[in-house]
Amino acid sequence: MKPKRVGLLLWKEFRQFRRDKLLLPLVFMLPIMQLIMFGYVVGSDVRNVPTAVVDLDHSTVSRSLADAISGAGYFEIVERPSDERALQPLMDGGEIQAAIVIPEGTATRLSQGQRAEIGIVVDGSDSRIASAASGYSAQIIGEYDRKRLEAEGLDIQAPGIDSSVRVLYNPSLRAVNTMIPGLMATVLLISTSSIMAQAVVRERESGTLEQMFTTPITRGEYVLGKVTPYVIIAALQLGVVASVGTLWFRVPFNGSVWTVTLGLGLFVFTSLGIGLLTSLVSRTRQQAQQTVMFILIPSFVLSGFMFPIEAMPAPIVPLTYFIPLRYAIEVLRASWLKGSGVAELWVPLTAMTIISAIVFSIALATFSKRLAD
Amino acid sequence: MALWADRMRAIAGGSRPADEPRAISDFAIETHALTKRFGDFTAVDGIDFAVARGEIFGFLGPNGSGKTTTIRMLTGTIMPTDGTADVLGYDVRRDPEAIRRRIGYMSQKFALFEDLTVDENLRFYAGVYDVEPERFAERRRYVLEMADLVGREHELTANLSVGWKQRLALGAATIHEPELLFLDEPTSGVDPVARRHFWDLLYDLAEQGVTLFVTTHYMDEATHCHRLAFIYAGRLIAEGTPFEIRTQVMTQQIFEVRPDGADVDALLEALERDPDIVEAYLSGATLHAVAAEDDARALERRMADAGFATARAVGIEPTIEDVFVHLVTREKEAAGD
């Protein structure tokens, strides 16, 4: 390993980057656009959810509560059935996606200083709407209760209205904020692995790879000279994506910068390894691209990004252990939102370290077998 | 250039740095039972040959016969499965790094970085081979003049036409003044004038003492080589100087047959059926026929009997192409039995 030759390879690589008119848009604009576009899909504000109110109390309290719910703009009351049993067919038919059930005796219980429970039912088949609806309704009810207690001159700690959420069809529900960190990791996976996957195979196609292996350049020098520029690019991408997440989507950052950086850094390194391996074993650029797609799709499905792992059939779950994105999302969600540190997250962090070590070892071993055929 | 020639002479004369032990050999390349298998497929099947220093050695064979695999083994890019090969006195298994420092390689793909400029390509390869800065300045000037690229140093390589790319590739492959240069079909896709020009450059290199190992399937180029070897299905089937190959491999008489009005296809078919004709094939507008007898008149009579009265036969010296076709046909027939 001669530093001078690695330096030469880096010089060459950056010269080529500078002339690559597609690289800059691909490396920076694409992840930003993907993040913003998908971010709105997974995290857009939900308004005017068709809602049914079942008022079994017929009191002033129940009426003003229903008004508060419809007045916020998130819910549009389209049905007022008199019986809770009417909700199921309405939800089955898609006429409503949320329902508020105010039980009989709510006003009486409240006036006696007792706790009263309001039922919220949401259609979980669209987790985005379901999570928004349950969140907003709980918030509206809480707000209503606070104002009521204030108006009556009572302590806000006093027993009041509680809301209990029941999700139909898809009981494990996630808040919108958990989607953005997962999306960041996904976007990073797409861009780093697909760019890296093209890197070596492009030189194989043009014949420069073969040429370089007739020179004193060693395989180790070549790989180092090839991966380093992409590590730098990936680090910049990581910064860009994290900035878009916090500044644009205002995902609250409660964690430690170091834990998040460590987690994302490890993950990006793993993605680069996967891209490198793909690039080394592919004969053509098209083949490399198809291989990346072949890896990306199971990653989306099995990582817990789109579908919660808890809801997966038991025989499928072990497969998720082989998906690096799964660990990245786990680390990000926990460290970003809950502030978990390395101590709590050592399992996924170690898993990513092991996976990237394996991937890079296989890549180097494959490469050391020389051009072979 | 004088410096390079001196160095070559010094190497040929046996003076070399003391810290680099290597076998004393007059041969730039020497192989014994060199074999490469990919799974069940034997790409190179136990070939033996030697290339003397300063020689232009032509390595001929149809596509897929093992030419490129042989070059890859000799350049230390892939390991032989069996047998040995010494290149510039170094064993390809034990010392591929030492070999790679001393050789140059140029392929049909002209593997230059298309998105680097002429100058950047030269700088890259000079750096890879650790060419001293002063030496590089000199070499760069020489290459630019040789490749007729003076004034176009900062042009992107992608914008050069094929002939220029080819010469630049040669310049990049020789920027470090290698003792041995491998050329894998260096002239494919290049027009005849550029090919001629390119061979002049190769002669210059040979005169300076560089050993050249050239594969080609242009038969006219084979005659430019000092010595030739034919490879077919992974095995060497003939070796020698172009003269030896033309005169010794072909012991039978070869005729040029001009149809002169007769139907060429029908005549070819008739010749192929003739038991006294060993081989018959198209060669340009005429036919070539290899016969056991050496009487042109007798051949013309037999053609007339077959209904081709106008056809004329003239005994000729076999060309390299004739030998090549002859050898390949013989091998194919042997394999078919």
Q: Please report which band the strand proportion of chain B falls in: under 5%, 5-15%, 15-25%, 25-35%, 35-45% or over 45%.
A: 25-35%
- Computed CA radius of gyration of chain A, to the nearest angstrom: 27 Å
Number of strands of chain B: 14
Low-confidence stretches of chain A: 170-175
Number of domains of chain B: 2
* End-to-end Cα distance of chain B: 54 Å
- Secondary structure class of chain B reads alpha/beta
| Number of helical regions of chain B | 12
CATH level-1 class of the largest domain in chain B: Alpha Beta
Overall pLDDT metric of chain B: 85
Q: Which structural class should the secondary elements of chain A be placed in? A: alpha/beta
How much strand of chain A? 5-15%
- Architecture of the largest domain in chain B, according to CATH? 3-Layer(aba) Sandwich
Choose one word for the global shape of chain A: elongated
Strand order of the largest sheet of chain B: 6-7-8-3-9-10
Q: Which stretches of chain B are low in confidence, meaning pLDDT under 50 for 5 or more residues running? A: 9-19
Q: Count helical runs of chain A.
A: 14
Count of the domains of chain A: 2
Task: Give the SSE layout.
The complex is a heterodimer of chains A (373) and B (337).
Chain A: H1 3-19, H2 23-43, E1 49-55, H3 60-71, E2 75-79, H4 87-92, E3 98-102, H5 106-111, E4 116-123, H6 127-151, E5 161-168, H7 179-206, H8 208-212, H9 219-248, H10 257-281, H11 285-302, H12 317-320, H13 324-337, H14 346-368
Parallel strand pairs in A: 1-2, 1-3, 4-5
Antiparallel strand pairs in A: 3-4
Helix pairs in contact in A: 1-9, 2-7, 2-9, 7-9, 7-10, 7-11, 7-13, 9-10, 10-11, 10-13, 10-14, 13-14
Chain B: H1 2-12, E1 27-38, E2 41-52, E3 56-60, H2 67-74, E4 82-87, E5 90-91, H3 96-102, E6 103-107, H4 118-128, H5 133-146, H6 162-173, E7 180-184, H7 192-207, E8 211-216, H8 219-222, E9 227-232, E10 235-240, H9 242-249, E11 253-258, H10 264-273, E12 277-283, E13 286-291, H11 296-305, E14 312-316, H12 320-336
Parallel strand pairs in B: 3-8, 3-9, 6-7, 7-8
Antiparallel strand pairs in B: 1-2, 1-4, 4-5, 9-10, 11-13, 11-14, 12-13
